[in-house]
Amino acid sequence: MVVRTRTADVAEQAAIALALLDDGRTTIYSDSRSAVRAFAKGTVSESALRIVRDKEVKQHTIVWFPAHMGQIEGAPSNLNESAHRAARGFVDRVAIERSGDEVLDNKDPPTTYNELAKNFCLRRQKYPPPHSKLNRPQALTLRLLQVGAYPSPALLHKIYPEIQTSDTCVLCSDFASLEHMLWRCPALRVHEDVTSSRWDAALRSPDLKNQLWAVQRAHDVAERQGLSVPTWERPATC
Question: With 90 as the cut, is the pLDDT of residue 146 above it?
């Protein structure tokens, strides 16, 4: 039997449906959570339904198990891996024959609330989370830098004009925005090679060294402006 589909989920459901016709096996294993859930909720695809429609299907147990765990040393051959390699061979061959068409999606689509929420969150994520080796204050500093809320003379003057009486840079007397304080100030460029692209790359990097560099630099330039900033960013070491 051939099931033509552009989604792996429908193919997985069809495979389970075919297995349901085998009376010699009462337990069916699948590595597709979405396919197992579809059978559990009775929301299978039309392709899977056609296979079992008007057929006598005895009671079976459908069990999900983690996919692609590799070959375990000393254990029997992992048939799931063998099937996956064979299936990928067909998919790759079909993808070539399609000459540029969309390749078959072999990922389980999100179905539960938590999976959908996490999927939307990751798709909208612009910056990586703080590295696990950053302490909490360092992680907070990085997040403030990523959203542009780290203290600067201009920001503090707008919020607390009676405390921060000036919004100008102490080094060049220009308007001291966060960008100016971090890398735009001409006085900084004389001694340091920091550009907007380098700064943006550091904020977008998941690497510990780059994140520590950004946190430490923010602390140093804030001190030069005479801002009251905590000292927990230093020493910044990997």
Answer: yes
Residue 232 in contact with residue 137, Cβ under 8 Å?
yes
Residue 179 clears pLDDT 50, i.e. is over it: yes
How much is the pTM?
A: 0.53
DSSP string, 50-113: HHHTTS-----EEEE--S---PPTTSPP-HHHHHHHHHHHHHHHHHHHTTSSPPPB-SPPP-SH
Per-residue model confidence (pLDDT) at position 115: 79
User: What are the E-state strand segments in the chain?
Assistant: 27-30, 61-64
Sign of the CA dihedral with 76 first, then 82, 84, and 85 last: positive
CA-closest candidate to residue 88, choices 76, 100, 105: 105
- Quickly tell me which residue has 């308007």 as its tokens: 175
Residue 207 has pLDDT above 50, yes or no: yes
First and final C-alpha spacing in the chain: 57
Tokens of 128: 């990586």
Give CA angle at 117 (135, 9), nearest 5°: 125
Average pLDDT of the residues in 136-157: 92
